[in-house]
Amino acid sequence: MATSVLSCISSQPGDLLLSLVSAHEKSKRTREFAKDIMKKDGPKGFFVGIRARFLHVGIIVTIQLLIYDFVKRLCGIAATGVGGH
Known about the structure:
- This protein is mainly alpha-helical.
- About 70% of the residues lie in helices and about 5% in strands.
- It contains three helices and two strands, in the order αααββ.
- It has a two-stranded antiparallel ribbon.
- A hairpin with a 2-residue loop joins β1 and β2.
């Protein structure tokens, strides 16, 4: 869980800039978008939408773990390894 949170936090600024550049069809350079964000909102501007990202990642990770557990049970593999000891 901590890994997912850290991943979200560390990748948010880059993903935000990538989305802006893509949405505006490269009307500005990435550096210009970053400067605009810093001028308007400061560092917190790079984390707009982080709550939605946490929710999205949390749901995906939870679903992946549920599927993983389900497949392990179908294969007769216990939670701690093979054989259920």
